[in-house]
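Bug report (template v2)

What were you trying to do?
Predict the complex of my protein with beta-D-glucopyranose.

What happened?
Run completed; filing so the output is reviewed.

Input:
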Amino acid sequence: MDTTKLTLEQKAALLSGQGQWRTHTYPEAGIPSIFLGDGPHGVRREVVEDYSKGIPESVPATCFPPAVAIGSSWDPEVAGHLGAALGREARAAGVDVLLGPGVNIKRSPLCGRNFEYFSEDPLVSGVLGSAYVRALQNEGVGASVKHFAANNQETDRMRISADVDERTLREIYFPAFERVVTEAHPATVMCSYNRINGVHASQHRWLLTDVLRTEWGYSGTVISDWGAVVDRVAALVAGLDLEMPGTGGLSAQNVVDAVRSGRIEESTVDRSVARVAELARLGNDEEQGTFDAPAHHALARKLAADCVVLLKNDNAVLPLEETTTIAVIGELAVTPRYQGDGSSRVNSTAVDIPLEEITALAGERGATVVHARGYSPTDAAEVARQADVAVVFAGTAIEAEGYDRTSLALPAEQVETIRAVAAAAARTVVVLNNGGVVSLEGWHDDVDAIVEGWLLGQAGGGALADVLFGVVNPSGRLAETIPLRLEDTPSHINFPGEAGHVRYGEGVLVGYRYYETVGREVRYPFGYGLSYTRFEVGDLAVAVTGPDAAMATVRVTNAGTRAGKHVVQLYVATDTGEVRRPERELRAFQKVFLEPGHSTDVTFDLDRRAFAYWDVTTGGWVVTGGAYRIQVGESSSTIVAEAGISLVGDPVIQELTMESTFGEWSAHPVVGAEFRQSMTRNLPAEQAADFEKANQDGLAMAAHLPMRSFTRAAPGLFSEETLEQLMKISRTVPVSQEGAQLPEVNA
Ligand code: BGC
């Protein structure tokens, strides 16, 4: 590869796509073309590049469980198997960069694309995204972690400004990207469509260069979402290397003009050309090999089963072991909903029909299956009456990229059918297929069991049958809260925004961080999920391993009668420090498999980020010295073991200035006492002793006055020299948990 052989025009052209999915090739410089194709849960490679008759068909590929399901697995191994299989299929389809994973945070359950995202929590999203990227890239296919950043809704997605404070970006919306970038080194990062605090992500220099490259050390290629570039030259300067798709030469001309007119240096072009050329090393002219479609279908079934979340199981109605007649009800049992719509839509190699899969497993057990199609409460109840268990398939009608939902409700006829069946059947199980959270209200208490099957991909029907009959013990956990009402969700009053802006007013209190902090009741909390066996968690031991680090070990026992998997969830809670912290935050998790009666010890290393918050005053991560609680949860709201530790934390310089308030001066850990004494230095001893008590109201009122105003209101109370001296000390003496020594003050 020798980019010095290229003219400015050729270099500029390389920075935009050639057509919809390809990059330019320059054989004379040894630069092949590469093909970028969707992602994220199956390969979507269109067979022709002709949009005159709508979106063309794509090559057959396995539709694996979408991210909403993978998120519920809480299992990086599941994400890894997915990534590796996608890599094999991408190679076979001649796709060099697969456009996934999507690691945006589920800010609102209404986001139309939540089915493509993992979780409301950045750790779950980051760990799974990272495992996916590593495995995909091990197969020689590049990943594209997307959509960077703050793309948390579809409404007005190409223009809306996500107005988010920096602490919230750093603590909630960035960490999944940061983890994927620093741990898994994705070949590309795809910028989002939206603006962030007024600036388009595609031309956001702070985002694409300062944070991504300078802070996180990213050395790959930044690409645009399809059509996200507004001003090609501004985007190039900000750090966007490759614009997709091509613009028929328009962008290249803009870049050439900008260089020729002196608006930008040619070296700015060269920098991105080098990155795109490097990316092109992934290019393979030929499709490489084939993939084993039946084996991938079987893998899709296995992975899907690990994602199913058992929400309710009264009187152990599941698994269906002692059943003789099963009524399967609903159109979704024969026309399954297993993926969402939009750029991720896969042309599946095969599709499991839940009714057929249930019938097959029932047959093996000598049980019969009766079926009512559609959602007619009259018909459904009649069929349900003939059976000892009724299984109703319910779910959302459609969810797609490009728009958000407006309600959490299931279609009304489905709710009526569930209620009618529950009234008629001996026992009722509801199986849900939905990409975004749906409301369980109005029927939850009427039914015996609820299986949250999300969108499970093309083998979801088989996976659901496996869970219903106990071939697989369910081990999924909610990666997002199921609220009681849409109105309870933290972003509700600020979603989807207005007049071109969406204000992230809930700040860091996203998902469970909000519900737990304000004590809001939910239907099912983050992290929740049942099993056919019973796990016990205990013997939590925590050791402090440094000023800002700890290690926790906990023993997990399968105390039930079946083998199964359990997710050990470790949360950290603290009241230390000046900023409002969420009630608790997930800081580590691990999924373990245990045979009945077996135990294992799970160990977590908690580094400083497990305790830190983003401090906007210093522009960095800070661990405050003080008390922290390490909690093991069955979910974000059920803590089963807790241990307290005390951390030294970071030394902090609490600098005093004339803009600091009287209250801040008085409470300053190093010079506060000296400051307070200096107020009474010239008073007779008995007045001095009584001063604070006698002036309680006045001092309370003064607490919020900047020193600048206070000294004007009370001239002569402090000598300028004393204040200068105290300010100087405050600038140099760090404060830490261990306390600070006050140097001598010359009063
Ligand atoms: C989506 C991306 C996708 C791209 C290419 C865009 O509309 O936002 O996620 O990868 O199209 O299909």
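What did the reviewer find?
Residues 38-39, 99, 146, 225-226, 343 surround beta-D-glucopyranose (CB under 6 Å). The mean pLDDT is 95.
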